[in-house]
Design a protein that fits this description.
alpha/beta, 60s Ribosomal Protein L30, Chain: A, about 35% helix, rod-shaped, Flagellar motor protein MotB, MotB-like_N_dom, cell projection
């Protein structure tokens, strides 16, 4: 009996081992793979249905190179003198802010021409921003030159400066009691010649080409040999060109010398107003050089 009480106790443990194909780990991996493939094909579908403008915006967003766009920081716009302003103190200098197009995002205004066109548009925009800054500096130089000269300061209300899509427009206008040219001729008064020379000194520092326009008022004119306002306006524009040439603006920078007679008045409702008689000097914007492969 005592031997029976000392029998060893044997504990049997059943060891269960997972066998490769019978486990569940592969299901988790497969589910991850299917999810990734679904996301990938959804991305391809979204890229296929997205418009080119959106794709261009995404490309610009992830582009490693970026440039800060500097807009025109001009002050409030000042309009040219009007008839209602007569009798009031004239503005010492009229500067019209750039009325250009509103600021656009990197993907707006781009044609559906692919990446090449978007790069050209970006280059053109950068050049325009740089030219705007140069034009603003030119405005400041002229403003200071006029203020510091007693002779030019008397003509400060006859200078209108404006930055446009074509470039920087500088208009030197007549006043009722202060004309720039002797009546019916292309002979400049001394103060008018000094003003054009001041403009020449300022624009001589820029590489841009110039267009010079002569304008008359709507009054009929009949000069020697049957000349009209057309010949008179052209002669006056050429007289301004000669003054610019004396200040260092070389002939290769002159794009055009044009006589417009009375076809482009500042005040269309009053074609006989003295301010319609003027010289316009347009500092042209320079178009960016397009590489030969850009059009392919």
């Amino acid at each position: 009996m005592a031997d029976d009480d000392k029998k060893p106790i044997i504990k049997k443990v059943k060891k269960v081992e997972g066998g490769g194909a019978h486990g569940g780990a592969w299901k988790v991996a497969y589910a991850d793979f299917v999810t990734a493939m679904m996301a990938f094909f959804m991305l391809l579908w979204l890229l296929n249905v997205a418009p080119p403008e959106t794709l261009a915006g995404l490309a610009d967003y992830f582009s490693p190179t970026s440039a800060a766009v500097i807009g025109n920081t001009g002050s409030d716009s000042i309009n040219p003198p009007s008839e209602d302003a007569e009798g009031m103190n004239p503005s010492p200098l009229v500067i019209i802010s750039d009325p250009g197009k509103p600021q656009t995002g990197p993907s707006e205004g781009k044609e559906k021409g692919g990446k090449g066109d978007s790069k050209l548009d970006e280059l053109a925009e950068r050049i325009k921003d740089q030219e705007d800054l140069a034009f603003e500096d030119l405005q400041e130089q002229l403003r200071l030159a006029i203020q510091q000269s007693p002779q030019l300061s008397e003509m400060s209300d006859q200078v209108i400066m404006e930055i446009t899509d074509e470039g920087m427009k500088i208009q030197l206008v007549d006043k009722d009691r202060r004309a720039m040219f002797k009546s019916g001729t292309d002979d400049l008064y001394g103060y008018a010649k000094a003003m054009i020379a001041a403009v020449g000194d300022s624009v001589a520092t820029l590489p841009n080409r110039l267009t010079i326009e002569g304008h008359t008022d709507g009054g009929a004119f009949s000069g020697p040999n049957g000349s009209t306002n057309w010949e008179l306006s052209a002669d006056r524009a050429n007289a301004a060109r000669r003054v610019l040439d004396e200040t260092g603006v070389t002939n290769d920078r002159i794009a055009e010398v044009i006589g417009k007679a009375s076809t482009d008045p500042i005040f269309p409702d009053n074609p006989f107003k003295s301010e319609n008689r003027r010289i316009t000097i347009l500092v042209l914007r320079e178009a960016p050089v397009v590489p030969p492969s850009a059009g392919n």
